[in-house]
Amino acid sequence: MRTLRISRIAAALAAASLLSGSIATGLADAEPIASFGACPQGSVTADRAVRCAVVSVPMNYADPDGPRIDLTVSRIAATGDRRGVIFANPGGPGADTLDYWASRIGTLPAELDANYDRIGVQPRGLRWATPLTCGADPNSSDSEQVSLGSGSRGDIKKACDTAQPGYLDTITTETTARDLDAVREALGVDRIGYLGTSYGTYLGAVYASLFPTRVDRMVLDSNVNPDWVWTEEFAQQQVAGKQRLDDLFAWIAEHSSEYRLGDTALQVYQNWARLVAAQGGGWYANLTPPPASFSDLPGPLPDPLAEIARDGFNGGVEQTGKVQNLLRTLISGGASAQVPLVGATAVATYTRTYWPVFAKAMAEANADPANVQRLHAIEGATSTDPTGQFVFAAITCNENAVVGRPEMLGAAVSTIASGGNALDARADLVRSGMTCGAWRPVVKPVPITGGDLSTPPLLLQSRHDALTKYEGGPAMAHALGGSLITVEGGDHGTFGRGNTALDDAVMNYLSTGQVTISEAEQAPLPAR
User: Fold this and answer.
1) Nearest 10 degrees: CA dihedral of 324, 327, 333, 334?
2) How far apart are CA 63 and CA 56, in angstroms?
3) Which of 114, 166, 283, 522 has a CA-to-CA distance to 251 between 20 and 30 Å?
């Protein structure tokens, strides 16, 4: 999966005044206990007036008197007439939150800066929030000791349990939502509003289901499908990616006079596949449209798939281990898959904003294969701290509710060999359930419901989103009883991209609770 880890937007409210028609919230009976001061070094953008506090919460909410962990919380105070407070979660699972608001000053509507205190709660398990180290050095960026790109997730689980006994099983969406509520209480706030993107939509939906009377207004942008948690969500990503890559290659072809990469989407793709193979991507070049036949593969199938194509899936320990390693590479973007062009392409599917710079970078590599600096820069735009990888594995394996189907391994190989859509094949690999291996769920996902919310939430979903497939928007809107705005195009994270009509609709909802539109055009490309 081009995982949900890029996922980008979230916010939560905690208010201080009761302005009529606003999202302001009432103060709780308890006095605030969070004391704000300087933020951890390197955690937030400088000179943005960000202050941080540390809030202590139970490690396990079933044992409130047991061990505790510390979460870091960031806050930027309203610059004008304050109407409320907004918490942020940028998605993932496993993306840092502290710098969410500071890094977006000047991008999000100015009314947010003026009228709302903006709060970021760093999710448990990440750096600055009692990091889940899994035996790795928390002061080092080297996660080679236990990583998602090598070794099994069984090894990851064992290492995490050994290093921090009992902690790994608490890394779930439900517990993270309970952390949000503990921070709300520490801030002395009665109700919060929320803005979440990607995985942040699911976290917000779980919070709303657990604490509906603590929510004022909620905006969920680029939604997880609550019926797909998690295996099917990731399988559907592969399907959604096809349309967005078709769109990307067609756009480059439309600008062939500038980039000289082909006059048609197919020609651009053929150039793309050639460059990926030349960079060492091999078989991964075929994991994009248009459909490739077995004979079209630029290199041999990886060993586990070649074995299955020849002998079928035997369920043996060795073969299963090989398939699990392959799946982790495909889903998490391991080194063997992430040659510069593949990594940059994945990032380019997040938003059209990247398309011109991506096309230029690909053109540079086409003219000079050694010129990949710009591709590396794009690829690094969504990089995460190693603790984010551990948190991603913990949440998705601890609460996966979709039973794997090993027989889908054979279906995937058959699809490739018969010339079917290679992205459909990758989806079937994910559906096989091999990703988590022997790591079994420890909880059942919280049932999503919005029946007790005082104001129905607002949901935003782009039609060709490559990371959270469109069906997630209607499904989440139905589960929460919310209003859906369908946005054309395929940007992942639609709010705050210069789309005036959409941004105005969101700000009107935050101010009045009313939704005035049901459709919006995609954000314009920035001037080049």
Assistant:
1) 30
2) 14
3) 283
Place 326 in a pLDDT band, splitting at 50, 70 and 90: low
Separation of alpha carbons 388 and 405, rounded Å: 27
Q: For residue 244, which of 274, 197, 289, 201 has the smallest C-alpha distance?
A: 289
Helices and strands in the chain, H and E counts = 17, 10
All residues at 6 or more sequence positions from 92 whose CB lies less than 8 Å from its CB, including other chains: 3, 4, 5, 7, 123, 198, 199, 200, 384, 388, 391, 392
Q: Tell me how far CA of residue 6 lies from CA of 93, 288, 352, in angstroms.
A: 9, 19, 15
Report helix, strand and coil shares of the chain as percent, to nearest 5. Answer: 40, 10, 45
| CA nearest to 9, candidates 264, 241, 164, 204 | 204
Would the pTM count as exceeding 0.85? yes
**Alpha-carbon dihedral 314, 320, 325, 329, rounded to 10 degrees:** 50
DSSP state, residue 412: H
CA torsion sign, 175 to 177 to 180 to 184?
negative
What is the spatial distance between Cα 299 and Cα 296, in angstroms, rounded to a whole number?
9
Interacting residues of 171 by C-beta distance below 8 A, sequence separation 6+: 124, 125, 132, 391, 394, 395, 398
The model's pLDDT over 72-86, given as tens digits with 9 standing for 90+, comes to 999 999 999 999 899
The single-letter code of the amino acid at 509 is Y
Taking the alpha carbons at both ends of the chain, their separation in whole angstroms is 31
416 pLDDT band (50/70/90 cuts)? low
Q: What is the DSSP letter of 299?
A: S
